[in-house]
Design goal:
Elements (H helix, E strand, L loop, with lengths): L1 E2 L4 E8 L9 E5 L2 E8 L2 E6 L13 E3 L2 E3 L6 E3 L5 E3 L7 E2 L1 E4 L2 E7 L6
Antiparallel strand pairs: 1-2, 2-12, 3-4, 4-5, 5-10, 6-7, 7-8, 8-9, 11-12
């Protein structure tokens, strides 16, 4: 783990090869549900729970940079978390970097996110 700033730390999420184009990957990092997405320009991370109704975005459908919730069809831009349809709240996003063939996500230092 490496501190990003006073409020966040870089935490290893998984091997980079586990995140494949067109197939969101859901996992828990420090008990926070995270969804990872590989796009042509890099890997992105959002909170894995839809803001509209409890459903895992990692079980949804990805089209270019938009993930669609499998439950009611809410759509989010995985690059910035912006809600594009159905829901009225954006989804949290997390900074991502690849280092030594592993994916790292910046999370709140010592705590958890909602």
């Amino acid at each position: 783990m490496e501190k990003q700033n006073d409020q966040q730390e870089w935490v290893r999420a998984c091997p980079a090869n586990d995140v494949r184009t067109g197939n969101p990957k859901g996992l828990k990092v420090r008990n926070i549900p995270i969804a990872l997405y590989r796009l042509p320009d890099g890997v992105y991370a959002t909170h894995d729970v839809c803001t509209h109704a409890y459903a895992l975005l990692s079980e949804g459908f990805i089209d270019e940079h938009v993930v669609e919730c499998p439950l009611h069809g809410a759509k989010y831009d995985v690059r910035n978390g912006k809600c594009l349809a159905i829901a009225d709240c954006d989804v949290l996003t997390y900074p991502v970097r690849i280092h030594d063939d592993d994916v790292y996500v910046a999370l709140p230092a010592g705590g958890s996110a909602q």
